[in-house]
Amino acid sequence: MHIIPVIDIQDGIVVHARGGERAKYQPLKSQLTSSIDPFQVIDDLLQWFPFTTLYIADLDAIERDMDKSHFYSELAQRFSGISIWLDVGIKTQKQTSLYASISNIRLILGSESLTDLSVLTGSCTSQNILSLDKRGGLQLGLAELFENQQIWTDTMIAMSLDKVGENRGPDTDWLLALMSTSKCDWYAAGGVRGVTDLLNLQRLGVKGSLVASALHAGHITYENLTNLNRDTAFACKGGV
């Protein structure tokens, strides 16, 4: 199973996301790092475990339409050995062009932000990732993004914003409903409490999960991650 650490950036520092109530987010407190500087936090995470992918949500860009392309060009160059899934609140095709030259960045197209469906043209071969965002059971964004599977990307995220950082467990019913009608690779986001949730998601056939709070609180250990990676590799080789 593909486990992807999430880094939420607000006012230039790493914060602890909870419940999608962004005005209340506090600076990160973690067992894995003593820093709130994005570069140092990433350094510390990668020293702790060899993650291949990171997910970054830049709340300044999402909420204020800020152009952060120069910052992420520098960050991507610094961490060139990993894939960075980046949510900067993409709304239009023009915004995607700002990041097109950064080879190890995959842009997140969050339904709460996206207004220009042309961004999803040719999604079958696109590096972009569509995130279907919900809060309190309500779909965020254009209805077509949730209903028209023809514009879905090969890799998809089911994002339950109200569950983020709240220790309430993933929305497995929603994930199962999505997976039953599409062949996309689905990633769960929001609510993971620990390794038991990850194992349950793995059994359901979820490709991977975005995780933050459970990692920083020590509820997911190095050994847990190693075992999940080993089991995934074994399954890919035809193990039973």
UniProtKB/TrEMBL annotation:
GO BP term (any one): L-histidine biosynthetic process
CDD domains xrefs: HisA_HisF
GO molecular function: 1-(5-phosphoribosyl)-5-[(5-phosphoribosylamino)methylideneamino]imidazole-4-carboxamide isomerase activity
GO CC terms, sorted: cytoplasm
InterPro entries: Aldolase_TIM, His_biosynth, Isoase_HisA-like, RibuloseP-bd_barrel
Keywords: Amino-acid biosynthesis, Histidine biosynthesis
Protein name (record): Nickel transporter
Pfam families: His_biosynth
Pathway annotation: Amino-acid biosynthesis
Native source species: Methylophaga aminisulfidivorans
Source taxonomy: Bacteria, Pseudomonadati, Pseudomonadota, Gammaproteobacteria, Thiotrichales
Protein family membership: Belongs to the HisA/HisF family.
